[in-house]
């Protein structure tokens, strides 16, 4: 039975709908899973770029330090042609290379030059440098290999289905950021080791 005073055939008019029905209701914005995923992806990408910039900054400083040391050695040892040029093979970057691939290749090339100049300093002294210096160089290689392994895993995942709806694998991005952070600190230690090697070689030779 219809309520008193209300026509059964009366249609609902949205203009007459009570405006204050939801006046005391708090509407919370709903973020979809996709929106949250995009946010996490953006944060990981920004962090990755930050760590890459730190690595390149240390790499540029290392190149500058190495060239300076080469000049000092050539000035100190007149008649010796001391250079970091070498024939150590460096793996080429893959097609559609990313910034990760580029930092791996650039660091590998610089590593070859550093170990070459260290070897020539040992030849000038007639003995090997301290184990701590060699251990630092070895840690540099191990970190590069770790980063390369993460990158290969990422490429394999991409070939299968790593990117779903345009989103990257966030945990893998975080792992690569962690490796890049270690790599930056390691290159900083390599700079110190290279400087120590030059000081030792110059001091030891002219005593």
Can you put this structure into words, describing what you see?
There is one protein chain. It is built from four helices and no strands. With 207 residues, it is an all-alpha fold. It has one domain. About 3% of the residues have low confidence.
Structure characteristics:
207 residues; mainly alpha; 0% strand
Task: Give the topology.
Blueprint: H1 33-76, H2 99-125, H3 131-160, H4 170-205
Helix pairs in contact: 1-2, 1-4, 2-3, 2-4, 3-4
The amount of helix comes to 55-70%
Radius of gyration: 31 Å
Distance between the termini: 114 Å
Secondary structure category: mainly alpha
Main sheet specs:
none
| Element-by-element helix/strand order | HHHH
Mean pLDDT: 82
Number of H- or I-type helical stretches = 4
Shape verdict? elongated
Uncertain segments of ≥5 residues (pLDDT<50)? Answer: 162-167
Total of domains: 1
Number of DSSP-assigned strands: 0
Strand portion: under 5%
Outline of the structure:
Helix content is 66%, strand content 0%. It is built from four helices and no strands.
